[in-house]
C-alpha cells in the first residue's frame, strides 16, 4: 500500500468518526484491585467516596453522606495511628508506568499551624501511575520516606508502592486513590456518569466486589475513664486489663459515617450481671465520632473477673453494626 493510499484511508476514517458514522474503540478502563494491604471491614474501612453532587453540598455514589464537597477519590482508612506506624502497604491497583512521585513530607494532622507547608501539595507523599489511553491512578497521603518506586518504573498489579501515611492535607491515616481519564474524575464504584440513581451500580471497575458500607464501628474497648478523642484515634485508649481500684470502668465506641438520629447502645456485663446499659442518640452526621459510658468504681473496688462490653449501632431502628470487647479486672 502506498503512502498516499494509507493517508487517504486515515483521513476518511477520521472524517467518518467526526460525523458519527463510525466510532474508534478506546482501550478498556483499568480493572482495579484494592490498593491497600488490609481487609475491608476488619483492618481498614472506606471513609469517603467521590462526591457526585455538583452543588456546594455533597453525596457519595449511593446518595449517602460518605464524602465531602469536591472530593475526587476513595479514602481507604486505617483504624489508628498505631496501625499506620506498624506499616501498611499501598499497592498498585492496576499495571502501568510511574508518572509522578513525591516523598519527604512529614506525617502530621493538617491544621492552621502547618497549612502553609501543605499549600499546593495537598496530596502529600504520593505516586501517580499511567495506565495508557489517558487513564491515571493517583495515590496520596503516603508515609514519609516510604515511597518504593521511581519515575518511569513499570509496575504490576499488586506491587508495593509504599505505605499508608498521614502526609498532606489530611486528619486521619488513610490512602486517597483517585482515578482519572484525560483529567476527568471517574468513580470506580459508578464509572458511568449518566447513571444517577442511588441503587448499587451494575458496573464497577473493581475486580473484586466491594459492598457499600454506610457507616459502622471502628473500635469497641474499655478504659479507666472517658478517653480523649485524639487518644482513641492514636490507638492507645484501649485497656485489656484494669486494677480493681481503677477510677472508673468505661466502655467506648469509635465509629464512622454517623447520621443524625442513629442510636448507639452500650452495655457492660460483669461477673454478677448487668453493670450498665446506656443509649446515645446521635444528633448530627459526622465522618468519625465516639461515645462512651461507664460507672465510677464502687466502694471496695470492682469484683475481679472478666467484664464484657457490647455496642450496637441502629439506624432507623435497624442494626447497622455491632462490636464487643472484654476487660480483665484483677
From TrEMBL:
Residue span, M23ase beta-sheet core domain: 70-188
GO molecular function: metalloendopeptidase activity
Alphabetic keyword roster: Signal
Keyword Signal found: yes
SUPFAM superfamilies the UniProt entry points to: Duplicated hybrid motif (SSF51261)
Signal peptide: 1-27
Full protein name: Peptidase M23-like protein
Annotated organism of origin: Shimia abyssi
Amino acid at each position: 500500500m502506498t503512502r498516499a493510499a494509507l493517508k487517504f484511508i486515515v483521513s476518511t476514517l477520521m472524517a467518518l468518526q467526526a460525523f458519527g458514522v463510525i466510532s474508534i474503540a478506546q482501550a478498556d478502563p483499568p480493572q482495579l484491585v484494592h490498593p491497600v494491604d488490609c481487609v475491608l471491614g476488619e483492618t481498614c474501612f472506606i471513609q469517603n467516596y467521590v462526591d457526585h453532587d455538583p452543588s456546594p453540598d455533597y453525596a457519595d455514589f449511593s446518595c449517602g453522606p460518605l464524602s465531602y464537597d469536591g472530593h475526587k477519590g476513595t479514602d481507604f482508612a486505617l483504624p489508628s495511628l498505631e496501625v499506620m506506624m506498624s506499616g501498611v502497604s499501598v499497592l498498585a491497583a492496576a499495571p502501568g508506568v510511574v508518572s509522578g512521585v513525591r516523598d519527604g513530607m512529614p506525617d502530621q494532622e493538617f491544621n492552621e499551624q502547618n497549612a502553609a507547608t501543605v499549600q499546593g501539595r495537598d496530596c502529600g507523599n504520593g505516586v501517580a501511575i499511567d495506565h495508557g489511553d489517558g487513564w491515571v491512578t493517583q495515590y496520596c497521603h503516603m508515609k514519609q520516606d516510604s515511597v518504593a518506586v521511581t519515575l518511569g518504573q513499570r509496575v504490576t498489579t499488586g506491587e508495593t508502592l509504599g505505605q499508608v501515611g498521614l502526609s498532606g492535607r489530611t486528619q486521619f491515616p488513610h490512602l486517597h486513590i483517585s482515578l482519572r481519564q484525560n483529567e476527568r474524575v471517574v468513580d470506580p464504584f459508578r464509572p458511568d456518569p449518566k447513571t444517577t440513581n442511588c441503587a448499587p451500580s451494575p458496573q464497577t471497575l473493581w475486580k473484586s466486589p466491594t459492598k457499600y458500607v454506610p457507616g459502622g464501628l471502628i473500635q469497641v474497648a474499655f478504659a479507666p475513664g472517658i478517653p480523649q478523642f485524639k487518644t482513641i484515634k492514636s490507638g492507645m485508649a484501649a485497656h485489656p486489663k484494669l486494677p480493681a481500684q481503677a477510677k472508673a470502668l468505661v466502655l467506648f465506641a469509635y465509629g464512622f459515617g454517623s447520621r443524625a438520629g442513629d442510636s448507639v447502645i452500650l452495655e457492660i456485663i460483669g461477673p454478677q450481671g448487668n453493670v450498665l446499659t446506656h443509649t446515645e442518640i446521635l444528633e448530627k452526621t459526622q465522618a468519625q465520632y465516639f461515645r462512651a459510658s461507664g460507672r465510677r468504681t464502687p466502694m471496695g473496688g470492682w469484683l475481679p473477673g472478666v467484664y464484657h462490653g457490647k455496642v450496637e449501632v441502629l439506624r432507623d431502628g435497624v442494626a447497622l453494626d455491632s462490636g464487643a470487647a472484654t476487660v480483665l479486672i484483677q
